[in-house]
Amino acid sequence: xxKLLPEREIAWHHSKYLIITLLLFSLFIVHDSxxxxxVSVQGTVLDSSGQxxxxxxxxxxxxxxxxxxxxxxxxxxxxxxxxxxAFTFVGFKTMESPVSGRSTIDVxxxxxxxxxxxxxxxxYGLQRxxxxxxxxxxxxxxxxxxxPVSDVTQSLQGRVSGVQITQNSGAPGAGSTVRIRxxxxxxxxxxxxxxxxxxxxxxNFLNPNDVESMEVLKDASATAIYGSRxxxxxxxxxxxxxxxxxxxxxxxxxxxGVQQVANKIDFxxxxxxxxxxxxLEQNVGNQPIYNVNDYNEGTDWQDYIFRNAAxxxxxxxxxxxxxxxxxxxxxxxFNQQGVVKESEYERLTIRLNNQYKLSDAVTFGHNLSxxxxxxxxxxxxxxxxxxxxxxxxxTQPDGSYTNTAxxxxxxxxxxxxxxxxxxxYRGVGNFFMDVKFLKNFTFRSNVxxxxxxxxxxxxxxxxxxxxxxxNPENSVNVENLRNRNILWENxxxxxxEWEDHRLNLLAGITTQDFYxxxxxxxxxxxxxxxxxxxxxxxxxxxTQTNSNSAGDWAMLSYLFRANYTYxxxxxxxxTFRRDGSxxxxxxxxxxxxPSIALGYNIIEEGFLQNQNALSNLKIRGSWGKxxxxxxxxxxxxxxxTGNQNAVFGENEELIYGATLTRLANPFIKWExxxxxxxxxxxxxxxxxxxxxxxxxxxxxxxILVSVPIPSYVxxxxxxxxxxxxxxxxxxxxxxxxxxxxxxxGYNFGIVASTVNNKVLDLGDGNEAIFGGAVGISGYLGSRxxxxxxxxxxxxxxxxxxxxNESELSSxxxxxxxxxxxxxxxxxxxxxxxxxxxxxxLGSPIPDLIFGFNFGFDYKGFDLSADFNGTYGNEIYNAKxxxxxxxxxxxxxxxxxWTGEGTSNxxxxxTNGGHNYEVSDRFVEDGSxxxxxxxxVGYNFQEVALSKIKVQNFRVYLSGTNVFTWTKYSGYTPEIxxxxxxGTGYDSGLYPVARTFNVGISASF
Length: 1004
Description:
mainly beta, 22-stranded antiparallel β-barrel, five-stranded mixed sheet, 53 strands, 8% helix, globular
């Protein structure tokens, strides 16, 4: 196994001496103004809330001599005794303060709503929003912590243009599928996450209350600094930090609530089921089996498996700092019961963010989080509850479970199949040191760690419900998973401002190493069922099974970026990154990823200075190339797989063997994504109305695809080559209005994005790729071909129902249809319906993704609401298509064909066969509009709170997923998960919950 890059030793050798040299050099820095007779002035610059402001220009009035505040708002400067200091910062009013012999001058800047408002977190640093040349969207803490969710990425839903967030499931602790500007590869399309400088593949562990901001990097100008990791976009998460020289502040945030299934599926009742089941038997030549009059409403199995479930969250935090140390400490407990019985998620998170000033030039810090969670999954009852007959009761009069064949009894599943538990222990964080020297240089060394240990155990007792629902031998299964992710980055930053110029240079070297290992085992016939016996050694040795596997990858990178601003008007950003990945062979191990961007702040032109309508106007454009390395670990190397055993010889002995199961391709190389973006930013009426408009194109070349080979070659898996090409293009729009009229403030915002996805190439022959197994016999319902979108639905178009024998003889048929069966379109007009008549039935990729929000506040009262939705996408209702036997029926079957003229859309009742081909019968409109969150709260007045030494106290009521407007018949129109070649299939998802909460937020 090739664990690490050979070049890494060389890189470590060079970077080691670079670090030592810079650290030693910083110890001997002598201030360039030593010996002057000027007064030494230092101080802190704060905003109106008492938070430090980094990047404030502190200049001696009438000169170009000055400095910039650091990340803690601190500055120091040698000035004449009679000088006047001018403090300027984007988004704040300029303030002047005479020195008058003072050695300490602390100031508080007042916000200026008429100016551009903030610094934005970018890769490896901060940048003025007015200087940005890339497409970056930001969401702040007050919007992130509003939703009662375990996955913080859901806070971006409907808040950021160009981003689609889809819940994978409504199960407690379930994650989300995140797509930034469409699907750009046939492989992993998930973005990169960066938490306080640590590069990660997921952020499910984060406590939303710990997050200060989330920045979404969408174009090459913004993401190229992350090279191969940024092809699918980057989400940067900054957690809350303490401040130097501030009093300790204690905060409490808590809520409790109840969840319920937001939408149920409409099923027939017991009497209707008996009628439909009888018809089904008659349609295949059998006699009716039920007396319809014996049944009434019967059992609604959804009511049996669903429940109102509790959700609780408590966060405690403390932050502050002395002259040499600051801290932010938090603890969070989150508990979510599932709306399906026997499902639950519980998480405990502790975070400690500290910084230590070792000297005026050296700062050491860490951002550490420790997470424990345990999770119980429901025992697979959703599918059985969908199919179980309503004529059955869960239990018999004697208390035993009813035989509900042909499906398992969900009630019995809850008792016998719910003994599963997953415990996860994870530590994520980083340690860093900043060394400042020569006034304009900062060196940072950052070491990031992500260590995860997961233990899963399940136990199944002996039970008998029916011949198809039984377990004659008890069993225990365990699995241990451990992951190790180590990152080491060393960067050097140069920042200088003079006259009309502002220059920032960044260079660095980074390395990252990932290792994963899984160990699992199982045994049967334990001597008892007490939990104290749920261990492998308690089972019979002869029944044991075991498995052990591992994998690793490593990356070495060099990076450079230059930002230049002239007269606050003309902007330039250039980025270059070179990545080397162990996932590729030596021939193509390294990839180069450049980008360039230009910007023009038109608002700085003289002809726009003496007007009141336009407060901001900027145009920016970017081009860049970024890569994608999210493929299997060893695609470029031959891997031997063991346990390929067979029986040989006269004695029929079991011979253990190993072989190559995949032909390696050592010449595979990086997938490369070329992105171009042009954007406009504008503001009107003193920034009350702001907006951004971006048009982008994103073309991915050399996408890795599997190539079919003849079976006689002897490889169990197809090799991969660089062949495919995909293009995404679209428009992102963001509009916001914010105003204050006396005590009344209000705001409104809207985001919208279009996505046009098109496959340009699939390699030699451009053969179609099929995916999305559904229905009986594993029909493949998705197809990917040149000229169309990835993973579109492909099957037969229905044009009616055969009404009589005359139509059967005159209309083209596929097989032995009878009256009441579906008519499929003869697309090619050859008089026969076959595979060549299949057509595109729709796409899971929406044409439009949108969201809007509004809010107001008045004398302590506030109200806010968020909406999100999609338009133009379809969903494949796979659960309705899958009928291996007679199952329960959705109410749509009541509109079935029962004779000539009764229906021309819903066929006669059957199980499988002709009417269950992949067709538009199972494709439904997936468009929706959802009231994602509504919240009303009250902030108690400061005058009243000051008497009890409370800074602020807020109470609120909120509802999440309150209403969903959609034509889709399933539990939710949000269908996440699955690979990119087969998405949008509803095979029986865990329902999304509607949640109502009451909460408090206080600080002391």
